[in-house]
Amino acid sequence: MSDFFQNKRIWITGASSGIGEALVYACAEEGAHLVLSSRKEPELRRVATTATEKGAASVIVQPLDLADHTSIPGIVSLVLQKTGKVDILINCGGISQRELAMDTTLEVDKKIMNINYFGTVALTKALLPGMLTHQLGHIVTITSVTGKYGTPMRSAYAASKHALHGFFDSLRAELGHTPIRVTLVCPGFVRTNVSINALAGDGRPQGIMDEATNKGMTPEEAARRTLRAIRQGKEEVWFGGREVVGIYLKRLFPAYFSKVIRRVKVT
Ligand SMILES: NC(=O)c1ccc[n+]([C@@H]2O[C@H](COP(=O)([O-])OP(=O)(O)OC[C@H]3O[C@@H](n4cnc5c(N)ncnc54)[C@H](OP(=O)(O)O)[C@@H]3O)[C@@H](O)[C@H]2O)c1
C-alpha cells in the first residue's frame, strides 16, 4: 500500500455499489478524503460508515442523479464549498443494457446515454473550472471493454461508452498544456450487480446475474487496477479476462474480429 491517495480529495460516483464501492474502500484504506455520490442515499451512508472504519480521512455523502443534468452544477458548488477543491474525480456511475438494438426502445437508448454519457460529461464540465483555477486535478472515467468494441445486446451501452472515449480523448488533448490528467479505465467482466441492474428493451432492470459477470474479476481487483492506473498517470488501461483480447483483435484484424464477434454468445 502506498500513500499516494493520502489526504487527496476524491469524488467517486457510483459509490453505492460494485466497482465504485470497492474504489471507495481502497481509497479509504490510503487515508483519502472522500465524496460519495449516486442516487441511493441509504446505500451511500452504509458505504460511508465502512469507509470511515477503513481509515478515510473524511467522508461526505452527496446524493446525485446523473440523469438530472440541471442539478449537477449546484451539487458541484455544494461539494466545493465543503472540500475547497477536488483532486481526483472518478466517474464510475453507470448503467448497462441487455437487449437487441431492434428490441430496445429509443427511450432506453436515451436513458442510457443520459446517465452514462451526458451525466458524466455534465459533472466533469462543472468541476473543470475549479481544476483549471487550481491547476490541479485528475479526471478518471470507468468506461468498459465495450467502449472499445461493440457486442450484441449492448448497442446503447456500447454507444455511451464509445462516446465517453471520444469526449475524454478530446478533453485530454485540450488539457495537454495543463497539469490536469485524464484516464480512461476499460474493465471487462467484473462481478457486480451491473447485469442485474441492466435495462431490458422496455426499460425495466433485467434482474438477472449473467454467467459471464458472475465469473468476472472481483470489484476489489478492478479497484486495485484502477488506482494503479491513476498512480501511474496512465491515459487508458484495459483489464479483464478473454474479452480484453477482442480489443487487440479489432485493432489488428478488424475483418476477422467482425466475424468472431457475431458468433460470440453474449447474454
Ligand atoms: N461490472 C462490469 O462487468 C463492468 C464492466 C465494465 C464497466 N463497468 C462500469 O463500471 C461502472 C460501475 O458499475 P458496476 O459494475 O459497479 O455496477 P453496479 O453495481 O450496478 O453499480 C452502478 C453504480 O452506478 C450508480 N448509478 C446508476 N444509475 C445512476 C444514476 N442515474 N445517477 C447516479 N448514479 C447512478 C449506482 O448507484 P445508485 O443505484 O445508488 O444510483 C451504482 O452505484 C459502470 O459505469 C459500468 O458501466 C462495469
What does this structure look like?
By secondary structure, the chain is α/β, with parallel strands linked by helices. The chain has a single domain, classed as NAD(P)-binding Rossmann-like Domain (Rossmann fold, 3-Layer(aba) Sandwich). It contains ten helices and seven strands. It has helices spanning 18-29, 41-53, 72-83, 106-134, 155-174, 194-197, 211-214, 219-231, 245-252, 254-263; strands at 9-13, 33-37, 58-61, 88-91, 138-142, 181-187, 236-239. It has a seven-stranded parallel beta sheet with strand order 3-2-1-4-5-6-7, with helices on both faces. The radius of gyration is 18 Å and the shape is globular. The chain binds NADP nicotinamide-adenine-dinucleotide phosphate (NAP). NADP nicotinamide-adenine-dinucleotide phosphate binds next to helix 1 and helix 6.
- Round the Cα radius of gyration to an integer and report it: 18 Å
Average pLDDT, to the nearest integer? 97
> Superfamily at the CATH H level?
NAD(P)-binding Rossmann-like Domain
Number of domains: 1
CATH architecture: 3-Layer(aba) Sandwich
Low-confidence stretches: none
Strand order of the largest sheet: 3-2-1-4-5-6-7
The topology string of helices and strands comes to EHEHEHEHEHEHHHEHH
Q: Report the top-level CATH class.
A: Alpha Beta
Number of strands: 7
Question: Percent of residues in beta strands?
Answer: 5-15%
